[in-house]
Amino acid sequence: MAALSLSPRALYVEVAELLRQRIYNRELAPGSWIDELRIAEELGISRTPLREALKVLAAEGLVTMKVRRGAYVTEVSEQDLREVYELLSLLESDAAAALCRLADNADLAELEALHQQLEQSALPGTGSRDRFFELNEQFHRRMLELAQNRWRVQIVADLRKVMKLNRQGSLFKAGRIEQSLGEHRAILDALLARDEALAARRVREHFASGLQAAAA
User: Do 109 and 147 lie in a common domain?
Assistant: First the structure.
């Protein structure tokens, strides 16, 4: 394979993104050992930027470093999932309540348009599962951004990277897409009504359903 073609970004950042996508796509399976020598040779790089990239992924929870054994793709346990979902529920329900106070009509219209795209992507023959997942994540991310707390946005982004390790086992289970759409609509309706308590509750219910599907 030809040496990795780089953008002006730091080499280790490029390598981290490449490995991140391989992990999400299951090219590097959960629990698998990461062969540093083979990957470095494949990319035409030294092991130094590769190891720096692995440190980034370890900080994100996607890679687990084991003493004298090297790096492994993180395996997400049921307890891990429960803890991630609980934190996401707390942070995003708080964001939904804040959004009711802070968002203007244009912000809410933007969220409604995103939800409509999400519904469209779920129709048979009109989209793909990857597109649905992308729009689903975009809807949640935009809610957080509009709630105007950059630290909350950052923490949730890191948690969602871990949640992606299990995405095939939750959102795409039979009937979960339709259920998720209904929950999104309920969240959006509460936001449009600017009902803080209801919006926060709908988000908590959404994550409770997601955890139930992931753990089943």
Answer: yes
Cα(24)–Cα(159) distance, integer angstroms: 14
- Mean pLDDT across the chain: 89
Q: Specify the number of domains making up the chain.
A: 2
CATH number, domain containing residue 126:
1.20.120.530
State pTM to two decimals: 0.80
Span 76-116, pLDDT tens digits: 888 988 999 999 999 999 999 999 999 999 999 999 999 99
Amino acid at 150: R
In terms of Cα–Cα distance, which of 172, 110, 168, 169 is closest to 143? 110
Concatenated DSSP letters of 94-158? HHHHHHHHH--HHHHHHHHHHHHHHHHHTSTTT--HHHHHHHHHHHHHHHHHHTT-HHHHHHHHH
